[in-house]
Amino acid sequence: MTSAAWHARIGCGRETGAGFLVTDCHVLTCAHVVAHGDTDAVSVTFAHGSAGAEERTARVVGHGGWAGRATDPGDLAVLELDRPVPMKPAEFATPCDAYGDPPRRLVAYGFPKRYDEGTLAEYRATATQLIAGEWVQLEAWAAHGQPLAPGFSGAAVTLADTGQVVGMVSAAARGPDVRNGRMLPAQVMARYWPRLGELIPTPHFGRADKERLRALIDAVSRQDAPACPPERLYREAVGALGPELPAHGFRSLWDAAWYMLSEVPDPAAVTRFALRLADFAEDAPTRYALRAWPHADRAPAAAARPAARPGWSPILVEIAPSGLGDDRFLVEVSAYTDRHRRVVGSRTLPMRGVRGYALERIDEAYRELDPDARELIAFVLPRRWLNTDVAHWQRSADDDSPLGSFAPVVVLDLERRRSGGLQHKLVRKWRQLDDRRPARLHRVGCGALGQDPVKLTVGLRRHDADIVGFGTPPRADGTRRLFTASLNAAVPVLLWPRSGCRGGPAHEDCRGAEFLDRLAEHLADLPPSELPSYVHELREAAYASDGPEPHWAHDLALLWEDPRCLPDPVAYQHSPVG
Questions:
Q1: pTM exceeds 0.70 for this model
Q2: Which residues pair with 136 in a beta bridge?
Q3: Is 56 helix (H, G, I), strand (E, B) or coil?
Q4: Which of 38, 117, 121, 45 is nearest to 77 (CA)?
């Protein structure tokens, strides 16, 4: 066995346990050993280190969230010494090295009663299976020898032949005839203290890579706006055929990243995770650093975008002139399941009754969706209504939250939806997008209102634009003409701010230009088929923002039309009052 200089005896009040040095100033132990560290002094002694034999004071600077019971997870504490020690820290084995056939002999160095200088216990891992997603069971290597008595808590569990650490003793035996215990594996410990992940060897990624990834995750996690849930990023990174979510779930973005580093065999999954995380970085340096992830070249081009996800199950809200007067509209709400459309409700109403009726029928339409369906609420609106704030509608009489925070909300243009030629071109466009990445964004700035609409239509068709972003809403005459030109070019995605700049000359630094810059930062290189999800997340962040200025996406509008998941209803072929 290699030198034991980095093994430590930990004292905290009346508690005594073990620990081990992992950096020149950090020691790991069990949280229950230093449970009273806020009131009692914590001492660390490296009994076998010539440079650290004297007692050191330390403070708890990190923990795994242990709640106080023996069966609670997160029984890990990180201690910071009062000053660095000039000795080599522990080395870690790869996560799988603790197991084998035949079993590998494991050694723990603890400090039970009457063994102030420490003693050894020999054990082996019963199986690779984690108990409650947290622990590995240990059983004695032989029928005799030192049991895991109190005083071993926090001891490093090492490979007998190399001295490399594979885990930490977290539960010790309570009787002389009890010959088992529990180990917190190193890869589980790294969930709770991300810096440990840099010290544990993993395939394909070195320490510098993991250090950089951890720092970038920290930068994203510190943002005021909530980032994408780690479970969603994990699923997008591993793909539909990748490993299932672990039973313990993920506590944080780092937890998901570390699980992929240590458990998922596909190295491209981590690259996809990093590239997808870039979309949620608020500051440009962090975002660009993520997209420059050092292993991006290892992933095939298709891997640099989220994996394919199940199709949408839309709830369609169609609002069309009824033909019975300027103030009467036909409102029809339908639910699509596997491309089959069921009408939930249909009624002709005055304008003042449209919102309430539509929201009630939307809630009813959810009963038609499969529990695992990916919901999408799509409003088909007359062109003059496209800037209506449907995403901000109060969801129900009992829920004041915006509809756009409840589900992805998009709008569609009624006139284009009734055009057979444009629907044909849209289907062909989406087939091209399925095979081509990234999507191309065409900007229409606030100062471009004098542009010829016909030339814009032809130019967008010629250059095969996928997304058009407007710096001003389609309310001014010039913008409305350019908006119509984009619809006529069969562009499947249009984005704009519902309020803000009204257009005109010399608008290089106006709010519209800033909005377009943000679009390019957050939505560039994303698959258009998933834009409703991304915009939904941006809206959630905007609604939750407490900043002094409105979030840049607080009034973001999205026109998104894929005829393949919204087949034309037969009713569109006839006048509603025929």
A1: no
A2: 183
A3: strand
A4: 38
